[in-house]
């Protein structure tokens, strides 16, 4: 079968690998030029944290080793308090699990190389400008056209394929922006070494704002501010930039010699959640579908955007198994995944509040320690939500059901313990 | 001030009248040709039910008399049971209040004539194809261009002005379709007279589907089916159309000689709720805003789409009062109306369930009678939600607060009565 994928980003490339393995002929159309000769675009994207769902997808294609070799494991969060105090919170009870920091550009280069297979063609500098879902005709900014029976949009949060679907009657759609923007900054190596602990995702929780930093193999850290738009816009002079960082992020400020230049040069990104339903339309012999961010863009606060997109590829591969490679039927079946992507979209929004506000509180830290104690006491029976999302491939919706069940058990056990204690106290008084 | 309004439909024309009265120069651009010489498009839109909010807006411009003269008052609902039994439910406790049936095309002609004022120009056959919110440049399908500092999109549910706003970062948007379509049919006059009671909105509630009919001055009724899409598509032969109507709508079927031709010729409409936030963007000296369905398209089941759009004009007029005709400030202030339009969007969705399902039940009818009894017993103190929405200009969000307060009182009074009765019974037993 000939399949057209729009977008040769992370999900587009991985999907091409899965489809080529099934014996399909794949053409990838990508708006941008080939990133491999030109080098990375800087200041454009948050570092990624690849965890079990992403690794599982890569493992199925034998790509996990190469990707993990280019990544830095982060077994926990390092909180930076205003007074400089550092607190390390392991992500898992046994401290053995890690999420893995990797730059988007580097990961994309690895996946583009992996997709250089006999059945796969990549056409760079082909920006989709028109799509007819009835005839399967694609038009590109260059003036070229193509035709396909199966078109899969893996073209990200601002998907051009989805723009066409969205215009059809009956297609539901929503875009919700946070009032927050993000901006990338850098902590360079100090004397050739990492300036902070490299084995952690660093967080500066500051209530309504925060900064995070992820390690890079070149011993720098990529920092990302998540600030209200008005706060980002307010720092309009070098003095104001320095004053704010000196006051709010004093330890990081010492490590950022290029702060003012980075702040002024780097653009402000937007944080959006996009929802669309259905994800596919079949008209006669032509099927157009969506996958990854094009189907369900989420905010980055659970570190699951790319992991979820990679898991989409595994699920679509499974749907092709179940339908004998009938793409119209497989993309219809793939709609079942919306139950899971709706959950992670919500969790990602909720985790922003946790990261920027709660992780700094003693009560939250005590709760995390209790959770890890339960995990150690009941291995395989009790697992935290973070652990299930990041270190398992349990479907997101099943994670939510399991977390709800666990909470009921813990509440019931707590109640039983309280009643028992009250009974013992009464017995003791009677004696 | 020169103001450009995109869309010369109901809300665009009414807004032009309000703005001209304030001394502004208004240009209206309308995609369609002038509807007055050509006659009405048929089969394209549901009849409207103008009620107090719409009448109040028209009254402020002295247009209420002319509009009501062209309309048929409907003081209640007439339910058609499957066995032919008819039940009339008045809309108000004193039966003195009515909603008013009028065709969209007829109302548009009246408002276009009203907008023929010295300060108002109307440009028909000008389809907006491009808008630059920074320069205020408008481009039209004909190739023409224009420039404006204030552009207000009154161009309906599929607004071209909103398309431009929606593409800006930070603008939230959603479109939600029901799985239902609508189709227009006709009950012609019988022997020159109305074939059914003209003083009612007729409803055939059928559980998951329904039909309604509104009277026209020419003694016909415009009927609208609201059916699941699959049911509409299933009637693909004249036999199936006749069989379904004979079985489900037997009394109406007798009155529809052109049923099969209407069913096959008339298109299926879609039912969508559109939300957008913010409704306006100001860039330098240019302000682009939205009003009416362009800002908040709702489903038709509360009969409030046009009424709400007309009330928008009153509110924007008030915002211009409060800001001394500073359009950027007035459109910013106008965002406060979203609290109200969000409420009516939700009520309209909820009322679909009431109309197609609950209005047929005895329990529902008993509840309505109780409600009207309370209204008569406590005039000015107790009013039903329907009465407040349709026969007052109480803001929609205040209606919801008042209904919630009333329910708490009634529940408390019911509880007090039950306790009193129990106490009396106990006292009686003791004697």
UniProtKB/TrEMBL annotation, chains A, B:
Chain coiled-coil ranges: none
Among InterPro entries, the record links this protein to: FAD-bd, FAD/NAD-bd_sf, Kynurenine_monooxygenase
Transmembrane stretches, by residue range?
409-428
In terms of superkingdom, the source organism counts as Bacteria
Domain called FAD-binding: residue spans: 2-320
Give the EC number(s) under which this enzyme is classified: 1.14.13.9
What family does the Swiss-Prot or TrEMBL record give for this protein?
A: Belongs to the aromatic-ring hydroxylase family. KMO subfamily.
Q: What is the lineage of its organism?
A: Bacteria, Bacillati, Actinomycetota, Actinomycetes, Streptosporangiales
Q: Give the main EC class.
A: oxidoreductase
Query: What is the annotated role of this protein in its UniProt record?
Result: Catalyzes the hydroxylation of L-kynurenine (L-Kyn) to form 3-hydroxy-L-kynurenine (L-3OHKyn). Required for synthesis of quinolinic acid.
This chain belongs to the protein called Kynurenine 3-monooxygenase
Encoding gene per record? kmo
List keywords of the entry alphabetically.
FAD, Flavoprotein, Membrane, Monooxygenase, NADP, Oxidoreductase, Pyridine nucleotide biosynthesis, Transmembrane, Transmembrane helix
The cofactor required is: FAD
Q: In which pathway does it act?
A: Cofactor biosynthesis; NAD(+) biosynthesis; quinolinate from L-kynurenine: step 1/3
- What catalytic activity is recorded? L-kynurenine + NADPH + O2 + H(+) = 3-hydroxy-L-kynurenine + NADP(+) + H2O
Pfam (any one): FAD_binding_3
Record HAMAP family: Kynurenine_monooxygenase (MF_01971)
